[in-house]
Every structure is written in C-alpha cells, then in structure tokens.
Specification:
- The structure holds four protein chains of four kinds.
- Chain A is about 40% helix and about 25% strand.
- Chain A is α/β, with parallel strands linked by helices.
- Chain A has a domain at about 1-80 and about 155-165 and about 190-240: P-loop containing nucleotide triphosphate hydrolases (Rossmann fold), CATH 3.40.50.
- In chain A, strand 4 (about 55-60) and strand 5 form a beta hairpin.
- In chain A, helix 3 (about 95-100) runs parallel beside helix 6.
- In chain B, strand 4, helix 5 (about 150-155) and strand 5 form a beta-alpha-beta unit.
- By secondary structure, chain B is of the alpha/beta class.
- Chain B is built from 14 helices and twelve strands.
- The N and C termini of chain B lie far apart (about 55 Å).
- Chain D contains 15 helices and two strands.
- Chain D has a two-stranded antiparallel sheet.
- The chains are: A alpha/beta, B alpha/beta, C mainly alpha, D mainly alpha.
- Chains C and D meet through helix 4, helix 7, helix 9 and helix 12 of C and helix 1, helix 6, helix 12 and helix 14 of D.
Chain lengths: ~240, ~425, ~290, ~350
Amino acid sequence: MSELVVTDLVAGYGDARVLHGLSFIVAPGEICAILGPNGAGKTTLLRALSGMVRGRGSVRLGGTELTGRSPDAIARRGVAHVPEGRGTFMPLTVEENLRLGAYVRRRRTGVDADLDRIYTYFPALKSRLRQTAGSLSGGEQRMLAIGRALMLRPRLLLLDEPSLGLAPLITRELFRIVRAINEQERTTVVVVEQNAHLALGIAQQAHVLETGRIVLSGTAEQIRADEQVAQSYLGYRV
Amino acid sequence: MRVSVIGCTAMLLVSVAACGGRGGTEPGATASGPCQGQQATGITDKSLKLGGIYPLSGPASAYGDIPKGIKAYFDYVNAEKNGIGGRKVEFVVRDDGYQPPKAVEEARRLVEQEQVFALFQTLGTPSTTATWDYTNQHKVPQIFVATGASKWGTDTQHPWTIGWQPNYISEARIYAQYLKKDKPNAKVAVLYQNDDFGKDLLGGFKRAIEGSGITVVGEQSYEVTDPSVDPQMRNLAGSKADVFLNVTTPKFGSQALAADAKNTGWNPLHIINNVSSSITVLKPVGFENVQGVVSSSYYKDPRDPTWNDDAEMKLYKAKMQQYAPGADPNVPFFTYGWAVADAFNKTMSAAKCPTREGLRDSMRSLSNVQVGMLLPGVTMNTAAGDGFPIESMQLMKFKGERWELFGDVIDTRKEFGPLTG
Amino acid sequence: MAGFLQQVVEGLGAGAIYASLALALVLIYQFTGIVNFAQGELAMFSTYLAWQFTAAGLPFWLALVITLVVSFAGGMLIERVIIRPVEGAPELTVVIVTVGLFIFVNAAAGWIWSFLIKDFPNPFPEGALTAGGVSVGYSTLGILGVVGVVMGLLYLLFQHTKIGLGMRAVASNPGSARLVGIRVGWTLALGWGLAATVGAVSGVLVAPLLFLDPNLMGGVLIYAFAAATLGGFDSPVGAVVGGLIVGVAETLAGAYVGFIGSDLKIGVPLVIILVVLLLRPRGLFGRAVVERV
Amino acid sequence: MSESAEATGSPVTKESGGRAARRWRVPVHWRPLVIAALLVLACSAPFQLVPFRVFQFTMVLIYAVALLGLNLLVGHAGQISLGHGAFFAVGAYSAAIMLHAWDAPYPATLPVAAAVAFTLGLALGVPAVRLRGLYLALVTMAIAIFLGPLLKRFESVTGGPMGLTLAKPEPPAWTGLAEDQWLYFLTLAVAVVAFLVTGSLLRSRVGRALHAIRDDQAAAEVMGVRLSFYKTLSFAWSAMLAGIAGCLYTWVIGYVSPDSFGVTLSITLLAGLVVGGLGSFWGPLLGGLFVMFVPSISQSVNDAAPGVVFGLLIIAVMYVAPTGLAGLAGRAAYSIKKTLRKE
C-alpha cells in the first residue's frame, strides 16, 4: 500500500530516447492502466520503473527513491515486474518458480501460506507443481509469472501485456484475478495493456502514451467515455 | 572494387617491370685479409652477435631454461674472459612456441633484421627442419641445434647446420650394446613419444638389435597431449618383458617410472633415455622407487657428488650463482646450456677465419675438442663424412640418491661404424 | 576376465580424473552459458598454491583447506575483475577472454614455479585393494569417492538450498532473476568461485598421479570437455557419468582393439560423443528444453 | 546458455554481427577507396621491405584466408568451429603429399587442396548441421584433436611424426622476383580472389539466407530457408578456405608436421577471428595481423614469459573492443568523420 510518484521520467536505450519526461501519480492500492499504440514506450516505462532500463528523473515508491538502483535492489524494495512474454524460469519446476518469487523475503514464515494463497488464485498451477515451467501452456506460464510476482508480497505490481497471446476466455479470467488480488491485498498495480477495454475494466485511472509522452490522463471512466480519444488513440469503438 | 583490382594489377606489373625484383640483395659485411670475401655479418673485432630460437611459450616451455644457462656462460665469458677471442658475445633469444612457421619467422628476423653472425641453436626437430633450408640458402651457420635427430649428421645437403648432443640413434645403440652383453635374450617393452624423437630412438634401437637374441615384445606410444601414460604402461606390463625402455620426455618419464614402481607384479630392468634421466625427473618419483634404473649420459650432472671437486663444475656453480642469480644450477637444462655454450666458444676459437665460412669449417673439423662440462673421455669430433660432434656416452645406474657411471665411455662410431642416412 | 575387469577399473580411475574437472566446467557453463577454457589452468594454479603451502611446511589437509578457500576467493575475484567487464558482450568474446586467461595463467605458473615437474603429496595411502584378481588402488578409490562426494554436495546445493535455487534461476534466465531480487552479479561470481574450488579439488586429486607442472591440466581438459559433452553440459551427474564412460571406453579400446592402439585411442570417446550427440543433441543427461509456443 | 526467450536465436553472433558492427562499419562509399589504397600498398610493400617482413605479411595473408573461412561459418552462419586447424592441416597435407609423392606442379595442388577440404567439409557438414553452438564447437575440436594421431599413423603417405619437407615454389625467371616476393604475390593473389568470391557470395542469396539463419534459426526455417542445405554449404565453403590457406602454408613454409596443426592452431584461429571482428569485412585481416604480430610484441615486453603478456593482450583487446578490432577501427573512422562533419 504505497503511493507511486513518477516525476519527469526520461529513459531510453543507448542514444535513442524513448520516454520524454513522464509524470504521474498512482494512489496506494489503485490500479493504473497505461494505454497507447505500439512503440509508445509503455514497456519501456515499466522497465524504467523496475530498473531494467536506466532512467533519469524521479520514481518514488512510498517515499523511497528508486531511480538509479539496480533491478534486484528495486525488487528488494517491493516492486514485482511481470515482464512481457513468459519471463519464467523454464527448466525449473512450478514450485521452484514460485519460491523464487519469495527469494528476497528474509523470513521463511508465511511463504508456505502464500503458496497456498497463490494456488487458490490459480488452481491450474497446483496440479503441476513438479512440472517444469517450460512445459506449461502460454496461459499457465503467464499465471505462473504473476503468481511468482505475488510471492514477493509486492508493494507495487507491474504487469506488462498480460493478455498477449492468450485466448479471450483466459484473458478475462486473468484480469478478474488481478482485480481480486488488488482488492484483497491492496497492492498498487500498474498494468500496460493493448486491450484497453479489459484494462479500463479493472483500473481506477489510466494514462494514454504516445511517442514517449502522456497525451491523456483521467479516471478509467473518463477515458472510456471519450469516444474520440478511444478511436484515435485506443483503436477501438466503445 | 573491380576497377581498383585491375588498377592494382597494372601497377604491380609496372612496378615489377620497373624494379625487376628487389634490385639485388644488399651485400653483408665481408672480411678482408687472408679470409677475403667471406661473410663477416654480425661479427667485428669487438663483438659477436648470435641468435637462438627456443620455445619460451606454449607446452614445450620447459626448454626455455636452456638459453638461460647459455646466457650465464656468455655473461661470464664477456665479463671475465674478455669474450670469445676479444669479441663480446651478444646472444639474442627468440620464442617460437615450438611452432615451425614461427621458427621460420624468427630465423628470418635474426638473420635479416638482427643481422646475427650465426644461429646458435634452434630447438626441436620440427623447428630446425623448417628453418635449415633457409639458413643453408643464406649460408648462415646453424650450429649445435638442440635436437638429437640423426639427420643433422647424415644429411649432406645442409653443410651449415650441425647438431651437438649424441643423436637418438647413437643413444639407442648404446642401450642395445649394453643389453647384448648383459641380457642377450632380453625381451624388451618400449614406451615412446609419438614424434620424431621417439620414432628415431625406437627405430635406432630396433636396427641395433637386428641379428641378436634381443626382441621387442611390446611397443606403446603416447602423444604429448595425453594426460597420462598409465594405460600404456599397463598394456606393456602385460607383455611380460624383462627390459623396459623408457623413451619419454621428463613429465612422462616420471609417470612411467612411477607406474613401473607401483606395479609389483612386473619388475623389468628399467632403461630411461637421457632426455629424462635428470635427477629432477627421478626425485618426484621417490629415490627408493628408482633404484637400479639404467641410463646413459655425456655431460656431468650437477647433482652428482662425484663432481663436487671437479674444477669445471665448481666454476659452473659459482658463475651460475653470480650471473644467473635465482636460477637453481642443479637444473640440467642450465648445465646443458652452459656446456653447449662452452662448446661453441671452443669451436669459434678454433676457427681460422672470424667469418661464417670460418665457423662452418671449424664446426665440421673438430678434433678431440675437450669441453669441461662433458664427461671425461667424451670429446667433440667431426670431419668430412662425420657430422656428429658427440657420439660417445657412458652408461650409468641409479644408486642411493645419484647416478653411478659404469663401464667405459662408449664411442658408438667405433663400436657400430658411422651412421648413414 | 580378471584382466578385462582390471582394465575397466583402471578406466574408471582415469574417468574419475576427467569427471573431476568436467564438474567444474559444467558448473561454470550452468551459470554463464560459456565454456571456460581456463578452467584447467585455474585448477593447475590452485594445485601449485597447495604445493607451495605444503612446501612451506603446512600439513597437507590444512594446506588443502587454505587452497580451497583461496581458490574460491580467487574464482570470485576473476569473475569480478576479468569477466565482469565483458559480461554484456557476445558470448564468444567471453569465451576468448577465457582463452586469454588460459594462456596467461599457464605462462604465469611457469614463470613463478618453472616448468620442472614437482612432486605432489598423495593424500591417499599407497597400495591397492585386491579382490578376485582385480586390484583397485587406494588412490583410484579415493578419487572416485571424492568425485562422488563433490557431485553429491553440488546436487544438494543446487536442489535443496535457497542459494542453489537462486543460482539455477540466474543460469536459466538472468533477466527474470534480477526481477525477483537476486543479485545476479554476485551469483555469477559465486559460480566462478565454486567452479574454481571444484577445480582445485580436481587438481589436488590429479597432481600426485600425473606430476605437477604447468601443463598438468592441458591433456585432462580435453577429456573433461569430452566428458561434459557426453553427459550434457548442464548436468553434474552427466559430467561424472560422462567422464567414467570416456575413461573406460578409451582404456578398453586402447587395450583390446589392435587397430586402434594407444595412439588412436583418443578417437574412441570422440566417436562416442559424435554418435550420442547425433542421437541426443543435448548429451546423455542434458535437459531437453521443452518449450511450448 | 540461458533458456530465456532469446535462446531460440543463435547464441553467438547476434550482437557482434548485427547492430554494433553494422553501425560502425566503414561508410560504404569509402570502401572501394580504402581497398584500392590497401591493394596498392600491398603490391608495393615487398619492394620496400626486407624479406623477413615480406614473409611476415605472407603469413598474415595466409591466416587471413583461413580466418575468412572461419568468419563465414562463425560470423555469418553463427556456428562455432574449434576444428578449423584440422581443415587447414588437410589442405596443407594434400598439397604436401602431392608435391612429395607425385612431384605434382605446385599450382595444381591449390585446386586439389581446396577440393579435398571442401569435400571433407561437406561430409562433416552433414552431421554437423544437426548440432548447434557449443556442441558443434566441441565436436569440431574433437576432429582437430584426432587428426594429429591419424596423420602420424599413416606414415607411408604423410611422413608420420617426422612430417614432410618440400621444395618451395621457385619464382619464374621472367618476374625477376626473389623467392619471398614470389610467394608473397602468390598468396596475395589467392587471398584477393578468396576475399572477392566470398564477398560476392555473402551479398548473394546465400549470404542473406545465412544471416537469416544466424539471426533467428526458427524464423528462417519458417520463411522457407533450406536450413540444412545452407548450413552444410557454409561449413564446406569455410573448410575449403581453411584448406586453401593450408595449401599456401605448405608452399611458404615448405614443411608440414602433424604437431604443427594441433588444437592450439584451431583455438588461435578462433581467437584471431574474434579479436579481429566477427562477421565484419576487415575482421579476418585484422585477426591475421594480430595472430602474426602480437606474440612477437609480447616477447619484447616480457622476455621471460611472453605468454603472460599475450594472454593479457587478448583480454585487453576484448575489453576495449568487445566486437573485435574491426569494430574498434570502424568506430574510430566513424568518430573522425563525425568530427570532420562538425567543423
């Protein structure tokens, strides 16, 4: 339950700058959706938040400055990033993957309880504890990645394109679970998503990115209501 | 790009036509006086420049100790004896990593860039083979090469190249001679290194036992890249031979000695070749395990207390301490280097002309030349038709903590006749 | 029959030597995905350290412990100082850095300790155990035992400790490992340290049999590569089994197949490898990656 | 190798051959100029230098031809070989045996050496195609290890461990060249042709197919690239170039022995290529220069243990230029150009 304050965040790869000074605030326990076309810098934003990409400016989580820290240091401060794609440890078993999520937790107590909790969210994982992550289907791997992120007991959860490549039914289920997690654990969530409809369905507020700048901000309802915006930026009809 | 290629070809043709080659190679210095017209590159009244090629890097680096012994000798001679005949010796050492192409490069560097008077030692048969056409075409003495291949002495096309140490075939003859006397019906098992050295020695041995009651009942080879010769030793033990001929280089020599000692069911007479007969090879195996091992030698072992009062040995130890501080004079490579450098000194001093031709003639007409570090009775002799400076060796047996020489010095030329290709 | 069994036993002894170094190779490979050409030379250098300690008068076992500790620290230091700067470079660049390290360490050892062979104390008693006409040297038994124990310890470390789990995570996906909070850099250094320690054990086991010189591990390394390839480069168990198979195969071929003889026996494990790889490209024990797209 | 999503691509060369090298390349329109200047320099050099230097540059060219072949395989097709010393040896021995046993005229040995190496490459390429990355590297290394004992075994043909000593090609009288110059020009001519032919091969469909395989094998397969065909072809072509280099070696050194072509040669070649610059046009040449000259430089720095310096230099070059000297040179050219433009 921490507030995320992003101020003038600039980031990129080598000489190529991708983010040109982003500022926004996510209130504790809220879900914030980041929308926008391909190449807008959504993934880079998440990477900058988790330290995978060096950024300038300021990212503060619950008052702690995160910019300039390494990804593992940021993870130790309670930021869990579920990257695009699978992002699991394929040769390791499902259980090992989940336990790795709790790697930075010093006390072992509660880890087993948390595992049980993950299984209630994702019952499909429980039956595959001893299988390697590589043998799971795409949807199961995504669940595993999110489950692993939750094992960190994150203060901030970053989700990158959770729906990518998943069947619509599974995607809806996944978003329902994200919502449930957010409600039960009061975790602050930033979700990047192509499928704006789904994202806006669970988010309290949203920002639209285009070529590295925020071009529109507002509550989920406002964004959804703005039909013109929806057409030009989000590429779908309400 | 195609245009430039054509352009270049045209330019090439033009330039070739214009220059007609390299406008003649620049003539080196020549001598005057009675030796007029002979090559005097790299030599003046006050200086003498020599070049040597050794493996200082790579797997054969152990031999890199030899030039240190040579340098110590030359430093001593320069400082205390006013050089060789008033000429201070400069000894340039280059590294070939035991690679023939590298040896060719370094030989050319020494001759063309460093302008050395002579190549004093190239090490190893491959490196020497790769360079001797070059040195002989350019009429540069390649003296006392550090390899025991027989071809340095038998070949007639390369008068500028000569070996020094007893060749492997002569050494094999010595062991054959010994066995004929002591064990006329010996069944011999041989372990040999699968290269020119091993093949030469084994071949020489086989030829030397022809017509005698001695038979080779087992042969096993190893590669220098093998980790261990244990498997070979096991197979040889199965041959039930009563003599074991150990034709190896130092590390494998130790391994073979240890394997023989460990195998209590097989106790052949163990003959180890000169290359591996150094105390530094025997000591790691444990002296108690190498009693009675037979070998042969031609120079004095600094570890052997027999030579404690020997003048040359005392000089060697003192001067090594002085000019190569930190180097252990007991290392046989240093001794070898010292001895061969002394041999060079004697050969150079005997030259009638201080020229390359003079050195060639001198090294091909050595007559009973004494070298202090060689065993008493071992002298250097060459002549027309005899390209082997040292052909005598003496057998020795390991007792206690040292080698004991036994029998007389054997002159293989006398015993077996000259070696021919 | 006894003769044949004897050859098998000797083959196992040789194989155990290859396996011990293969373990170190596999360790590094698991972490970094590179083949460390310098592994054998590092092991050789550690062995010289042990020799130096015993030559200074320390009792063998104390010298061994100090050597292992120093090797561990040295391995970590090498990762931090030499490998770290090229961490993001293409893998072949890192491999070539290890080739440079190989040349450097070999020459440095020769420089410091000379190329003359040294006599290294054997931790195991002389003699052999004889049963049914087959005798097994205590050295062979000792090496087999130590290799087995090292393999077991590695297994426990990897499968049953949190740090081992973290190491496997780094090996499989360094990016995701960072995201769960693992200090990847230090874990890699830890991997190098461990490999150097295992290598030191290997060197100390091998030196009394092969005699210590700077080229101690040159020949062994090639067989260790063969062992690791055969067993699968990502499996410690595979490395050991691969090593034993290679040892037995070359020994038997050298002893019994007349045409092959001792000069061509090295070809036998190589042919086995080729055949195994063509049938099972991941090696005998290597994990096939099951990826569902 | 990590089994992350990237694992499907080639493990080796993505970086070096791709982004970095391409960005820093010598600008295209400069290239013919640079090449022409170099060729002029190369043609006039033997008239200016002492024979010993000419010999050194001959060896550089020989290594460059071998590295060109290796570059095709490693840099362009993304397959690692630690056995190119073996193909080099096969070329060298083919030539040597022809010269020695049949007194063949030496120009005839070049096509035969090339053909033998090509055929062997083809034969080994078929199984090699199934292997990838590290495993291919180790299998090829196995070939390099095994070749030495094999050559020693067939003593009647190969001269066994003693090797074969041969006469060097004599310069024809009309050229008026010295032996070292003649050998140099022979080598130069072969090297230029090898570079031209390989260059145009890479620009053709074959090159594009190889790059596709290197960058993403799975995708290339989907796109319909005949994987096994191109991989085998690149393997054989690469072996052939190594064989040609071996043949030149025989001409120039006039002596072949099994122990000259050990694993060390294969590893040296690979190191030379990576140091020179993987997948880049100039890499083989720079690698050849490195392999030839750096060991001597090392000795002048530290007489007692040249290996200490040589090892450190390899590491140092990889620090300064992780994508090889070609990348470094290109980067220098790029920044010079940038500065010039600014002024």
